[in-house]
Amino acid sequence: MRKRRRIITWATNPLLSEALETMKQWGFKYKTIITWHKERCKGMGYWFRGHTEHILVGVKGNVKAFRSMEHNIKKLPVEKHSKKPDEFRHMIERATVNLGNKIELFARNKYRGWDAWGNEVESDIIIPVR
Predict the structure, then answer these.
(1) Domain with 12 in it: what CATH number?
(2) What is the pLDDT of residues 35-81, one digit of tens each?
(3) pTM of the full predicted structure?
(4) First-to-last CA distance in the chain?
(5) Taking a C-beta distance cutoff of 8 angstroms, is the pair 93, 6 a contact?
């Protein structure tokens, strides 16, 4: 039986194409996007002042759509540098209840029900170095 997998990854505006390409190279098919409209943010960027970041959702295999009633844009305040609002974690948990393990790459903290990998936490997985 072929495994069905989901990927949910953050992307900033200037690196959106790289995030989509990485998803594709890892064998995931892009499905949708969730946007964080950052409140109280000065914004950065060379083209426009960026006030958004995005969560890309992709699948591998025959994954049934979440059919979530959640809106795909959330207006939430900016916290400390690079910290993502906890509301997004809760949103993902609600949409993927009973769908198996979740992992956060480049994690800074550990959360119940999530595996973590990163240089700022005790990682739950080991990624071999080539």
Answers:
(1) 3.40.50.150
(2) 999 998 888 888 999 999 999 998 888 888 889 999 999 999 998 88
(3) 0.83
(4) 29
(5) no
